[in-house]
Specification:
The protein contains 13 helices and 13 strands. With about 450 residues, it is of the alpha/beta class.
């Protein structure tokens, strides 16, 4: 026994002393007393029996169990069977009391007293055909109303007016399925083969090179970027997809990730014409040579990835390029960045040149309102983004650094926001300068 201060022992200074007191109080509350004048105890529900006969957390409508002297608690809708009290001390409220037995139903009881029925299934009425029929009728009436307002109903007896009226009737009937032959609305084979899923939800795409390992890493990288974007932003993209630039529709994707290596095939002129049209119509392509030892646009470089990249870009209408300036939108489209690392660091990220140095110095807001149609790096973005199904990174960064991988994902988020929303953030950041130029 110790007192409440530390004159005898240092136990009151520890948390164990408080736990001991709390448990003693709970144990005392959980013990019913037969004293007639003792106040009633109210024990909160701890666990109750569910429909399967197992203990489960109590629902919100369960009330505390009142224990009074001389009164045996009973099971009710408000106090179902279970444990009442706290984890340190509780009492059990049993469904079956002592000496009670469960007896089978007496078959000799009058059927008027006992009625047997089976479990009812989930039945529903399909209103779709009726709703479509009503919609078709309303559309037909709307067509008649339009004819009435145009004064054509009074001239229905004329043969010249019957043709347009018949056409409108056929159109109205076509809205009700089953009234016209199925072949009348059948799609062509070419239309049925097109995949329009990417038009319904944003999906990140990578260019399939035909090299199994490269395509596997690209797909894993886009998967990792998709999950990171979903967890850090309001955008919830769909699963990534690999595209064949020679046959697939490219307009559905805001940007394409294109890995380039020495073994990458060089597309033919027709394919590169489709790529050039995609870029001129607003699409962006991220070319990644995945080689940190050579500068991407250095003509003296002997990197095999750089050589193959130059061969691919030879047939494209490429604008002048420059490393990402310090005040470029890519540095602030979502995260604030001063570098663009991937699996490797140190390489530059090249984009379209925005303006000359003199123009940039004289104007605080960068010129140019479009998004760069081409981005070139050698830092291996996909290698840094690549994850497996358990979100484990597939490759180590060089040098090994968790912070570098985090920054690589942030680079991916900035590229996504830049290609999807444009460089609107340049105006947002430089609103004071813009208002000053406008004389506000």
């Amino acid at each position: 026994h110790v007192n409440s201060d530390n004159n005898w022992s240092n136990l009151p200074l520890s948390g164990s002393f408080v736990d001991m007191l709390r448990r003693s109080v709970n144990l005392s509350r959980s013990t019913s007393s037969s004293a007639p004048n003792e106040a009633a105890l109210r024990l909160p529900p701890l666990e109750v029996l569910n429909g399967l006969g197992t203990l489960a957390p109590p629902p919100s409508q369960v009330k505390p169990l009142v224990i009074e002297a001389g009164i045996t608690p009973a099971v009710s809708l408000d106090t179902p069977p279970g444990l009442y009290g706290t984890s340190d001390g509780f009492t059990a409220l049993n469904l079956i009391r002592e000496k009670e037995e469960i007896a089978p139903i007496n078959s000799n009881v009058s059927p008027a007293v006992i009625s047997q029925t089976g479990y009812s299934g989930h039945e529903s009425l399909n209103f779709k055909p009726w709703l479509l029929l009503i919609a078709g009728i309303l559309f037909f009436l709307d067509c008649l109303a339009m004819l009435w307002f145009n004064g054509l109903v009074t001239s229905l007896a004329g043969k010249r007016k019957l043709a347009p009226v018949s056409a409108l009737v056929l159109i109205a009937l076509a809205t009700v399925p089953g009234l016209l032959p199925h072949q009348a609305v059948a799609q062509t084979a070419q239309e049925s083969q097109l995949d329009y899923s990417a038009a319904l939800i944003t999906r990140f795409a990578f260019v399939k090179t035909g090299i199994r390992e490269t395509d596997r890493i690209s797909e894993a990288g886009m998967l990792g970027l998709t999950r990171f974007v979903s967890s850090r932003t309001a955008l919830e993209p769909g699963l990534p997809v690999g595209v064949d630039i020679a046959s697939d529709e490219l307009a559905f994707y805001p940007f394409l990730y294109w890995p380039v290596s020495a073994d990458s095939p060089i597309p033919d002129e027709a394919t590169m014409a489709r790529v050039d049209a995609y870029m001129k119509q607003g699409g962006s392509i991220v070319f990644d040579t995945q080689d940190q030892f050579n500068t991407v646009l250095n003509n003296s470089s002997n990197g095999s990835g750089n050589s193959r990249l130059r061969e691919i870009l030879a047939s494209l209408d490429i604008p002048p390029l420059e490393p990402v300036p310090a005040d470029h939108v890519l540095t602030k489209s979502f995260y604030l960045l001063d570098s663009f690392p991937g699996r490797y660091q140190g390489g530059d990220l090249w984009v379209e040149q925005i303006g000359t140095a003199d123009e940039a110095d004289s104007r605080p807001a960068r010129s140019g309102d479009g998004v760069s149609t081409i981005l070139i790096t050698n830092n291996d973005f996909a290698g840094a983004w690549a994850v497996d199904e358990q979100d484990r990174s597939l490759f180590q960064t060089v040098p090994p650094s968790g912070e570098q991988r985090e920054y690589a994902f942030r680079v991916g988020v900035n590229i996504v926001m830049y290609t999807i929303t444009g460089n609107y953030k340049a105006d947002q950041v430089h609103i004071p300068a813009l208002l000053e130029r406008l004389g506000q």
